[in-house]
Design goal:
Blueprint: H1 15-25, E1 45-50, H2 54-57, H3 64-77, E2 79-85, H4 99-109, E3 116-125, H5 128-146, E4 152-153, E5 157-164, E6 167-177, H6 183-188
Parallel strand pairs: 1-2
Antiparallel strand pairs: 3-6, 4-6, 5-6
Length: 191
């Protein structure tokens, strides 16, 4: 907000714009341009292009690499010829043959599944100040109760969609050891 820059450039294309460009470049070919609808077909294609994949890399979900790999593998199965992937991040580990081992090491280091359970507590309130106050109170109780354990508790932060219908949403994310029962946590939370 402070840079006051005015130089913006489009980082992606919509489906219609891509269709127009491809029709001009390849007027004699039958080209299918699709979004998620492509996953509802059993059709096999001679050439497949995956565009806009980079948008997925920025979603705040540890499952995203798996989802991207699932998409790529699905399209590989539906393509006789080449699968072209447009990306600004070709060095991303998802494109490495060693992806699985890198991902597992990363999850282990960050105590993410399958090495833990993820428990997400979301608090909503119409008053943002109250929402912060009450979530901070719960965070303090959790930290005090589990400070000497291997449980990892993140400080309160906004959810991916921080406000809906005049409600503010904050979350506390807990990484809980897989072999530890969650009953002690359940007993602390209001019913």
């Amino acid at each position: 907000p402070q840079c006051q820059g005015v130089n913006f450039y489009p980082a992606g294309f919509g489906e219609q714009k891509i269709r127009q460009i491809l029709d001009k470049l390849f007027p004699q070919n039958n080209i299918v341009v699709s979004t998620a609808k492509i996953f509802q077909t059993d059709e096999i294609f001679d050439l497949t292009g995956l565009i806009g994949l980079d948008n997925l890399f920025n979603l705040p979900d540890y499952h995203i690499p798996e989802e991207i790999l699932r998409i790529i593998n699905y399209l590989k199965e539906r393509t006789r010829g080449e699968l072209l992937i447009q990306t600004f991040s070709p060095e991303n580990p998802i494109f490495s043959s060693d992806f699985y081992h890198q991902e597992i090491q990363n999850r282990k280091a960050q105590f993410l599944p399958p090495f833990s359970k993820i428990i997400r507590l979301v608090h909503s309130h119409h008053n943002l100040g109250k929402c912060h106050e009450q979530t901070a109170k719960l965070y303090k109780i959790l930290r005090e109760r589990f400070q000497k354990s291997s449980i990892k508790i993140s400080p309160p932060n906004p959810t991916f969609i921080p406000q809906t219908k005049r409600q503010h949403h904050l979350q506390i994310v807990i990484r809980w050891p897989r072999n530890l029962p969650t009953k002690p946590l359940e007993n602390l939370l209001p019913q």
